[in-house]
Structures are given as structure tokens and as C-alpha cells.
Amino acid sequence: MKIAHCFFKYRSYTPIPLVLLLLYQAHPGLPWIVPGFGLLFLGEAIRFWAVRHAGGATRTREVGAPSLVTSGPYGYVRNPLYLGNMFIYAGIVFIASGPWMWELFLIAIIFFTIQYLLIISLEETTLEEMFGEHYESYRKHVGRFIPGLRPWGNTVRPSREHFSIRETLKPEKSTLMNMAMVLILLGGKWLYLHL
Question: Is the pLDDT of residue 192 over 60?
Fold first, then answer.
């Protein structure tokens, strides 16, 4: 489990090598920029919805949770934040385009799938210890990465329906700033190539 702990602790930094490689080979432009932004916005919408239900507890360096959130996107899929991230990474790869786009797309999907499976195994062990049978029932009825068509019927609502937009933006700020920084760098690369 040491590698899972390492991936969990440094999960904010693991995309850096991929981003550097993307910037090096990037050649942003049509036709891939449109679906790229579509995937990027879809991923962030999923993340925003998830953070709106779970709050700032999603930005922790410790494995665990103050409560088991099964409402909102968590009623459809157990790991909406990681699912959202996968859409964001795929979107950035498409926005960057370039000669290695499909290879980098595959590398990103494979790497982050492995990383998230390791992290999820660690998180699931902890959540099972913390929440027992309720978590086991939730785990049996809600998919890890593939969302169900309907939310799980045995959802437990948080103490309030969801967090405010301001409370949601605070923990999501670093994700938004990182996306903005990568998009600015890709825009700079586009200017460099076309001016």
C-alpha cells in the first residue's frame, strides 16, 4: 500500500510530467480544440457537482472522510472527482493536439487509471473501516468509474442539501487555476507557432 499512499499524497503533482510533454509537442488548433474544450468543461462540471456535495473534505492529504456522501453525483458513481479529472486530462490532450496526441491520450488514460485504482483501493479500505455495512452496501450498488443511469436509492443526504457556490469554489480554486495556467501556456504555444 506504500505506492498507493504515495500516489494519494502527491496526486496534485503527478500530472506535471504529462503537462510538460504536452506543452513540448503541442500544436493546438482545429479540429481537436472544440471536443477538447467540451471534455474539459464536462470534467469540471462533474468535479464542481461533486465538490458541491462533498465540500472541502475532498482536498485532504489524509485518507478518509468526515461523513459518507452518497448524494448528488456520488449516487451515480463512487468516484466522480476522479472521473471528472479523466475528462479534464483527455480534454487538455485534445486541446494540445500535436503529432503525438493519440499516444499521449492513451498514456494519460492508462497512467491515471492505474493511479486512481491504487488510490481508490486505499480509500475503499479506509471507508469500509469507517462506515462498515453502509459503505459495503453503497459499494455494491454504485459503480467505481462507470456511472449508473439512476442514482442509488439508499442515498444518505448531507446535513444540508449542498454547499454554496462560494463554498464550492474555495476548494476547487486550485484545480481551476491549474487548468487556466495550462490553457494559457497552450495559448502561448499557439501564438508562437502562428505568429
Answer: yes
Other beta carbons within 10 Å of 132: 11
**Sign for the pseudo-dihedral over CA of 28, 26, 84, 65:** negative
Nearest to 89 by CA among 185, 164, 182: 182
Nearest to 96, CA basis, from 38, 183, 178? 183
Q: Tell me: cis bond preceding 31? Omega within 30 of 0 counts.
A: yes
Q: What domains are defined for the chain? A: 2-9+23-194 (1.20.120)
Q: How far is CA 23 from the centre of its chain?
A: 20
- Please give the model's pTM, rounded to 2 decimal places: 0.86
CA distance 152 to 7: 29
